[in-house]
Task: structure prediction
Amino acid sequence: MIYLRLFWEFFKAGLFAVGGGMATLPFLYDISDRTGWFTHAQLADMVAVSESTPGPIGVNMATYVGFLTGGHVGGMATGILGAAVATLGLITPSIIVILIVSAFLERFRSSRYVSGAFYGLRPASTAMILAALVMVVKATFLPAVGAAFDWRLPALAVVLLVLTNTAGKKLHPIVFILASAVAGAVLGLAG
Amino acid sequence: MKQLLILFLTFAKVGVMTFGGGYAMLPILQREIVENKGWATEEELADYFAIGQCTPGVIAVNTATFIGRKRFGIAGGVVATLGVVFPSLIIISLLAGVITQFSELAWVKNAFAGVRVCVCVLIANAVWKLGKKSIVDKWTAGIFLVIAAAAILTDWSPVVFVLFAGVCGVVLQVLLRKGAAAK
Result:
C-alpha cells in the first residue's frame, strides 16, 4: 500500500527534522535512495519549485514528492491523493508534539534536557543539510557519462554566490531562481 | 463551527502569503494574527515562534498549531494547521502536474539545469547561516564534523544522526555544567 508507506516516511521526516524547511531535505534524499520514488535531479527541481511558490518550503516539498509518487500509480487524481497523504504525514507529528508542548509550555522552556538536546541537534541539522548539499552539487555539476564537464555551470554558481551575498542579499530567492531559469534556457545549460 | 472556519481561512491566507521558509511568515503572522485578529500578543507570537524552531517539524506548521490551540483548543490546533498547508496542496499539485507534462521539452530541461545551480547556491547560503548560529563552541563544531562526515560517507538514516546528536547534546550540557560548578 503505497499511501501508507508515503504517510509513514513523511511522518518520520516530520518527527525528526528539526530546524525548519531545509531540515527535511536530508530525509527526502534518504527516501529517494531507499524507495526510488523520485531521482536526485527531480529533488533539486522540487527545492526550486518549493522556494518559488507560496507556502512553507518543507510543506511544499512534501506535497511535491507525494504528488509525484502517487502520480506514478494513475495520474492527476492519485497524484493529489499522494500529495495530501504526504503532507498529512509531515504535519501529524508536529500537531501531536506542539499540543503536548503547549500544555507544558513553562516547563518545556526551562528544561535543561530540552535545551541540552537542542544544543546538540542544531549543529547536527546543519551537518545533514550540508550532506544533502553535496548530493545536489553532484547531481548538478557532474556531467552525464561520456559528456564533457560544463564550465558554465560553476561559473554561474560563482556569480549567484556573490550576488546573493552582496547586492542581492535582501532580494527574495525567487528572483535568482527565475534569473537562473532564463540563463539556463538561453545558454542551453542541459548540454 | 463558524469560528473554526474563520480560523481555517485565516491560516490559509497566511499560507498563501508565505513565500519561502518559516522566517518569511513572521511579519505576516504579526499583521494577521496579532493586529487584525488579536488572537495572540506580540510576545506570545515570539515565544511560539522560538519554540516552533526548536521542536520537530516545519516552523510555520508548528506556530500555526500553537496559535490555533491557544484560541480554540485541540480542534483549533488541528484546523489552523490544516489551513496553513491547504494552499500548498492545491498550488503544488497543479504545478507538479504541469511540470511533469512539459519536462521533456528542451528549453524546460535547459531552464531547470540553470535552476539547479541556483538551488545549490541557496542551500549553501542556508548552511552558512545555520552554521553561524548552531556552531558556537568546540563541542558543537565536533558534533557538526562527525555528523557531516557520517552523513556524507554512509547511507544511515538521518533518524540515527538526530537521536545521536540529541543524546550528545544532553550529556555535554550536563558535563559542562558540572565542570563549571566544580570551578
Q: What stands out?
A: The two ends of chain B are 59 Å apart (CA to CA). Chain B touches chain A through 98 residues (CB under 8 Å). Residues 2-102 of chain B form one domain.
